[in-house]
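Figure 6 in text form: structure in, sequence out.
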């Protein structure tokens, strides 16, 4: 299927004929006449990504390493995507929205990228999406689960990738309905769109049940520690703790939970802070039976030992990113996102910015081998949520263990609208 798609793309490119000049970039001619071709030629494709390589969310700096390894592999062994070698330019915003805007402008106006791919963070993406949509630059598969990035009709050039935070919250609500139907929940959340989105989704999902919120505590990304908030939450005597944090604060909350020995709630940590790299500094003995959810394969889970994609991932990371540890889940996340871009670009009817925009909004059960079985990419013109299925997992020993079935939140709770 992939090979066929590549041939279609190459043929379409030929049909577009030459390129015209337009203010701020180049345009296609032929069947794709007038569509933007800035950042793409018959031989090259230039993408830009914005990540917190430094600052309070620097753990996510592992993601572009996985992406780059994938693109280096595809460039070397598959002649790129549709015959185009991919260049991936990464910028550091330190998890600071004003810096993200600066870097977005630099990538679009100076680097002349074809698209922004996998830029990370709710605050940073919120700061940049007006700009990218005004410029009509695809902002594809942003690394944030904020629901607005899939439901806002005014920003057709921006789309998420990972399950949105409301869908993730629905999964935890469903789990508690089954396992602790009268749970009293204490919540720690990041005081921004990310934290409020997941918490709001959770509150809505428990409406009509006997599950209650016992206490909420928020933190700022500039806070040195969340231990004071954790001690306040411990006073609630809640029997469930919902940990809505990014990696640095996720580690702090896990450590505080272990330290407060007279409070032993069921600990749910949200997916974006569930990496083994977050848990390991706390000590594996201190995080036993913590639960979370996921949608892509864990490189250290032995059930994927003979999985073809996992074998490929391990081999190519070793070959194209020597020194990068393939067991780190954020590297696998990056690989999966890059593979998703590959399939989306291959399916584009025109090798143009408009072609990519339309393709990312018309994904029809696209299988990405690094995603869990049963999890596919599905979008529509009015549905900008490619992944809305997740599976619960529990930490045992030194790794996560999947349990239960993959939960398709579209079927379980209905489509997500508004935002």
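Output sequence:
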């Amino acid at each position: 299927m992939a090979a066929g798609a590549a041939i279609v793309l190459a043929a379409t490119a030929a049909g577009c004929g030459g390129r015209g000049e337009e203010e701020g970039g180049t345009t296609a001619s032929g069947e794709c006449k007038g569509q933007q071709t800035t950042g793409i030629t018959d031989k090259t494709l230039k993408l830009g990504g914005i990540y917190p390589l430094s600052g309070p969310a620097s753990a996510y700096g592992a993601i572009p390493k996985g992406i780059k390894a994938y693109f280096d592999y595809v460039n070397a062994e598959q002649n790129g995507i549709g015959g185009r070698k991919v260049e991936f330019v990464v910028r550091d915003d330190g998890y600071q929205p004003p810096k993200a805007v600066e870097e977005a402008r630099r990538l679009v106006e100076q680097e002349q990228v074809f698209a922004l791919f996998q830029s990370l963070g709710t605050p940073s993406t919120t700061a940049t999406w007006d700009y990218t949509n005004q410029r009509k630059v695809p902002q594809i598969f942003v690394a944030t689960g904020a629901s607005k990035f899939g439901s806002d009709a005014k920003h057709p050039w921006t789309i998420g990738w990972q399950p949105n935070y409301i869908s993730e919250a629905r999964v935890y609500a469903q789990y508690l309905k089954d396992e602790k139907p009268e749970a009293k929940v204490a919540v720690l959340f990041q005081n921004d769109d990310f934290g409020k989105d997941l918490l709001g989704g959770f509150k809505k999902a428990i409406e009509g049940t006997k599950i209650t919120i016992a206490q909420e505590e928020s933190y700022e990304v500039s806070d040195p520690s969340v231990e004071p908030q954790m001690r306040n939450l411990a006073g609630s005597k809640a029997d469930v703790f919902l940990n809505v944090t990014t990696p640095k604060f996720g580690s702090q909350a896990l450590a505080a939970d272990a330290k407060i020995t007279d409070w032993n709630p069921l600990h749910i940590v949200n997916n974006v802070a569930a990496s083994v790299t977050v848990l390991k500094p706390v000590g594996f003995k201190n995080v036993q039976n913590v639960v979370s959810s996921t949608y892509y394969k864990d490189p250290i889970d032995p059930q994927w030992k003979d999985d073809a994609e996992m074998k490929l991932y391990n081999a190519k990371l070793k070959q194209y990113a020597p020194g990068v540890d393939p067991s780190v889940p954020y590297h696998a996340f990056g690989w999966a996102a890059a593979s998703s871009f590959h399939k989306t670009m291959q399916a584009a009817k025109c090798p143009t910015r408009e072609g990519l925009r339309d393709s990312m909004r018309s994904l029809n059960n696209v299988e990405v081998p690094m995603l869990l079985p049963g999890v596919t990419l599905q979008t529509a013109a009015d549905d900008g949520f490619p992944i809305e299925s997740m599976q619960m997992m529990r930490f045992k020993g030194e790794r996560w263990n999947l349990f239960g079935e993959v939960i398709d939140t579209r079927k379980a709770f209905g489509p997500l609208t508004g935002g």
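Caption detail: The CA atoms of residues 89 and 364 lie 29 Å apart.
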